[in-house]
Structures are given as C-alpha cells and as structure tokens.
From TrEMBL:
The lineage of its organism: Eukaryota, Viridiplantae, Streptophyta, Embryophyta, Tracheophyta. Keywords: Amino-acid transport, Membrane, Transmembrane, Transmembrane helix, Transport. Residues 1-31 are annotated as: Disordered. The chain crosses the membrane at residues 41-62, 68-89, 119-139, 170-187, 199-220, 240-259, 280-299, 328-345, 365-385, 391-413, 425-445. It is a multi-pass membrane protein. Coiled coil: none annotated. InterPro entries: AA_transpt_TM. PANTHER family: AMINO ACID TRANSPORTER, TRANSMEMBRANE AMINO ACID TRANSPORTER FAMILY PROTEIN. This is Amino acid transporter transmembrane domain-containing protein. The keyword Transport applies. Pfam families: Aa_trans (PF01490). It is found in: Membrane. GO terms for cellular component: organelle membrane.
C-alpha cells in the first residue's frame, strides 16, 4: 500500500526533466509553481498538441489514397494503421517508464547505445524536414497556385488579384516564413502552443464540415457517382502501385517524436496513455470522414493534394466562396501545425550536432542559429520539390516508418529490461516485416514510375 501511494504521489508531481539530454524542457521550481508559472499541462491541452502533431499535411493526401485503394480497402487501412500506431506507442511508453527515459532518444540509447540514439535523431530530422516541406508546398499551392500535375490550378491570391510578383510562390512563402513560422517557432516549451493547436484542430474540422456539406448537397442533386470500394486491378503494375500509398498512411499517424515531451509536461504523467488514445481516435475520425467525403466529391479526378481540386466550379451556390474558405482554413491550419513539428526537429538536430553542449534553453545564440538554419532549409526545399506526393514517398518510406514502427518494435525485441511479453515480440516481428516489405515495394514502384516518366 505504501509503495502504491508513493507511486501515485509521484505520478501527480510536476516533473523536472531539465538536464543535458532534454535541453528545451524548462525546469519547474517551487517558486514558479506557487506563482502559477509553468504549471503542468492539462489533459485537454495535451490532446490538442498531440492531435496537431498527427493531423497535418497527411490529411490532404488521404483522398488520393482512396483513389488508389478504393473506398472500402482505404478506410479499413486507416483504422488498421491507427491501431498499429497505438500499439507501437504503448510499447514505446512502457519501455520508457521502466528505463526512466525522458525522451525517445533516451529509449533508443538505452536499448542500442549512442548509435541507436543518433540513428533515431537523424530519422526524426529527415522525417520532420520532409513533412514541414510538404506543409510549405501545400501553403504555396493554396495561396499561389500549382502546375505540378501538368495543369495549372490557380491559388487564392492569384484568383483574387491576378498574377503579380508579390503573390508569386517564392515571395508568399518567404513572407509566411518570416511573419508566421519564425515567431511561432521561438517558443521553448511545447505547452505554450496549446491554444494555437486547439485552433488548428478547429480549422481542420471547418475543412471537414464544408467538404462534407458540399458532398451531401451534390449527392441529393444526383451529381455524385457511386465510389469504387476496391482498387482497380488491371495488371501487375497496378498491384505494385497499391503499395505506394503505404508511406502516406504511415506519415498520417506519426507523432512518436512529441509523445515524451508532452508526457513530461503533463500535470499527471499517468494520463499519457488516455491522451494518446483520445488523440488517435479524434484523428482517425477526421481522417475517415475527410477521405470518404473528399474521394466521394472528386472521384478519380482527386489530385495528390486534394486542396488543389478546390479551384473549380463545384456546381453549387457560392462555389467560389466555399472553395476559398476551404483552402484558406487549411492553409491556416498548417501554419499553426508547423511549430509543433518544428519543436522536436530542432531538439533532435541539436542533440545530433551538439552532444556535449550546455542545454539549448540557456544558449540563445545556438537556439537562434539552429532555428534559422532549419527554416531556411525548409523554405528552399518547398521551392524546389514539385509536389507533396514526392515528398511523402521519400520520407514516409524511409525515416517515418522507422520512427513509427521499426524502432519501437526493435526496442521491444531487444528487451534490455526483460519486460516484453510473447505478444509484444510477435507484434514487433509483424510490424518490422510489414514495414520493410511494404515500403520496399513502395520505393521500387516509385522508382520504376519515375524511370518510365523520365524515359
């Protein structure tokens, strides 16, 4: 009884995770707590932050995955990947607790030493840079237009004011980076972003509600065709093509790099599993409805970035206004999601480059140098990578699948603390085998398609 009470007391005690391994988490002392500063994060705020880590650019590519898979198989796979993600997060948090690890990097270091920790940090760098580039690409598509599909789709600013130098893609992204991304990326505590995260989730729901409303109205008028429930298989190439959606589905649920940070800031660390489950359920709900209504609305005309479809006459009253509302709301959503993914990117790059330096929170010069360097890198990537599908395929089939499934499974199989059950090991082998096979085929299919296209 004494031990249980002590554990309960400790779980509710505000954590003090500041050390050389967790440089951006600010220490809480008694004076700060008594004055109300740096109080532990709430359950609701943590759900918003974790949900924002999950719902990002992936939602815009999900309707295109329905075009490849068919509605029945596609929606089933969304649920399957959500359940697999919850299982991997549960294992990761369990092994973190037994090893007293405060970060994903520490868990990997505990299992595989310094090499494992650095490999994880490199994968997070690749994944988050790729994802943030996707965010910028979509924002550029929305505001300035895109011709990536071979047909020009006008952006909102181009539609309102015509073509000018000041609404060109590069200039719009530069202004957005300086006025929006840079200020929001300066926070040194992720809980400081809870209000912007709540607004980001609300904006995602606005996109979903408008898309659903348009689809329902057109369905009642008889202007919506019955969607395909299964993929269109004609030859062996179309079979291999099914695997190209795997990186997109994997990327859509990745949030592993922020779970430890959110856990460390919670008032009660025992709430982290309910936070994870609530966030995954909320995001799965949004993903399923977005995929369903998005594919139902545009069918086989669905583009890789479904936002680009919202630039034509939808065949209902106030079509132009609804198009602009949908695109602007989601562009604003991505602007608010950006700092949530930028936070672990900066943290892990600092750990990769400056392993023995003093905490980043106390070194403003290093903090500014890393932040500005990463913003420049993402900005350049968004101006030179043609579309979001290319970026998703590269990051999703490599770094993302390692972060989400291969590394948690490898930690369980390594089982340094002898706590893995038989079920854990079977699930881990299944996750690694599925991830390696499906993503190998996806990489092959993409490489073959690019080769044919260039030929």
């Amino acid at each position: 009884m004494t031990i249980d009470k002590e554990e309960t007391k400790n779980s509710r005690k505000p954590k003090q995770p500041i050390n050389e391994k967790s440089p951006l988490l600010q220490e809480k002392d008694e004076g700060q707590l008594s004055s109300g500063e740096l109080n532990g994060a709430s359950f609701t705020g943590s759900v918003f932050n974790l949900s924002t880590s999950i719902i990002g650019a992936g939602i815009m590519a999900l309707p295109a995955t329905m075009k490849v898979l068919g509605l029945g198989l596609g929606l089933g796979l969304i649920v399957f990947v959500a359940l697999l993600t919850e299982a991997s997060l549960e294992m990761l948090l369990r092994f973190s607790k037994v090893g007293n690890s405060e970060s994903y990097g520490e868990v990997m270091g505990d299992a595989f030493g310094g090499v494992g920790r650095r490999l994880l940090q490199f994968c997070i760098f690749v994944n988050n840079v790729g994802t943030l580039i996707v965010y910028m690409i979509i924002i550029g598509d929305v505001l300035s237009g895109t011709s990536a599909s071979g047909v020009h789709h006008a952006g909102v600013l181009e539609g309102w004011f015509g073509v000018h130098w000041w609404n060109s893609r590069a200039f719009v992204l530069l202004v957005t980076t300086i006025l929006v991304f840079a200020p929001l990326s300066c926070f040194k505590r992720i809980d400081s972003l809870r209000y912007t995260s709540a607004l980001a989730v609300a904006l995602a729901f606005i996109f979903l509600v408008i898309t659903a409303g348009i689809t329902i109205i057109k369905s009642l008028d008889g202007n919506i065709a019955i969607p395909r429930l299964l993929p269109n298989i004609t030859n062996i190439t179309s079979v291999w093509n099914l695997f190209t959606v795997v990186p997109v589905l994997v990327t859509a649920f990745i949030c592993h790099f922020n779970v430890h940070t959110i856990n460390s800031e919670l008032k009660d660390s025992s709430l982290i599993r309910p936070v994870v489950q609530t966030s995954l359920a909320l995001c799965s709900f949004v993903y399923i409805l977005t995929s369903f209504f998005g594919f139902l609305l545009f069918g086989d005309s669905t583009l890789d970035d479904v936002l680009a479809n919202f630039d034509t006459n939808l065949g209902i009253p106030y079509s132009s206004l609804l198009n602009d509302t949908v695109r602007i709301s989601y562009a604003l959503h991505l602007m608010l999601v950006f700092p949530i993914l930028f936070y672990p990117l900066r943290l892990n790059l600092d750990g990769l480059l400056f392993t023995s330096a003093r905490p980043l929170v106390s070194d403003n010069l290093r903090f500014a140098f890393i932040s500005s360097g990463l913003l420049v890198l993402v900005f350049l990537g968004a101006n030179f990578i043609p579309n979001i599908w290319d970026a998703f395929q590269f990051t999703g089939a490599t770094a993302t699948v390692c972060i989400g499934f291969i590394f948690p499974a490898a930690i369980a199989l390594r089982d340094r603390h002898r706590i893995a059950t038989k079920k854990d090991k079977i699930l881990s082998v299944f996750m690694i085998a599925l991830a390696v096979f499906s993503n190998s085929v996806a990489i092959y299919s993409d490489a073959y398609a690019l080769f044919k296209k260039s030929a």
